[in-house]
Amino acid sequence: MAPNQPAFLPVMAHSEGAVYATSDTFSNGEQVAKDYHPHGVPAIQHRFSPYEFNGGTVAAVAGDDYVVVAADTRVSSGYQILSRNTSKLHALTPKCVLASAGCKTDVEQLRSVLDIYMKMYEHNHRKSMSTPSVAQLLGNTLYRKRFFPYYAFNVMGGIDADGKGAVYSYDAIGSFERTQVSATGSGQAYIIPFLDNVIGNNNRLQEKPDLGSAEVIELLKDAFVSCGERDIYTGDQIEFSLITKAGIETSYFSLKAD
């Protein structure tokens, strides 16, 4: 018997060499096979996940009479870039935009469900749903799927009935709150501290600045450029939706493409 060879046979030869079933020896000298596999290799448990994280970062900032919603356009899978020009922004009404990162297929499904509700409401009431109502509808839709959640990280921005900007931040199962600034996705940890400090003016002694939409867009450009340097899932372009009572205006800004 070869040195270091387990005493218990059988032996199976394959391309990597011989495989032996291991054995335990009891005090009476009896040997009993342990973890014996009839084909000489251990069993493999196969797992399936219905989710895939496709990355991306989204953010929104509310002003007195406007909202800026921003998102990058990169879609990734692991270390592969699947698309460099895919929008993460989706207009639900002429005054409300949903920004979603996460699993692309779940995001598309969530959008399609919300679009159906939007059309039903318009047919029944002959008008678009108000922004606070859309926010509640999104929360209810996410909560309805709480046992098998949409793998989507959502921020919604819009103009309310008083003409003021509103940003709503969500968790995976529909809990939400109205805030001035919000961000989510793969680069959330890089965007939120910047927005809290510069726009939210948290923990600062200076008077809180009254920023216009153009200034907010420039600040978001800086935030996404910095995020793109540290997060491989954020890049290529930023898509901006500027929402006012007049409607939605879209613009783009290029990021690094590596």
Quick gist of this model?
The protein is of the alpha+beta class and 258 residues long. It is built from four helices and 16 strands. The strands form five sheets. A five-stranded antiparallel beta sheet has the order 14-5-6-15-16, with helices on one face. Strands 9-10-11-12-13 form a five-stranded antiparallel beta sheet, with helices on one face. A two-stranded antiparallel sheet has the order 1-2.
Task: Give the topology, please.
Elements: E1 11-14, E2 17-20, E3 22-25, E4 31-34, E5 57-62, E6 67-72, E7 75-77, E8 80-83, E9 89-93, E10 96-102, H1 104-125, H2 131-144, E11 152-159, E12 165-170, E13 176-179, E14 181-185, H3 188-198, H4 213-230, E15 237-244, E16 247-254
Antiparallel strand pairs: 1-2, 3-4, 5-6, 5-14, 6-15, 7-8, 9-10, 10-11, 11-12, 12-13, 15-16
Helix pairs in contact: 1-2, 3-4
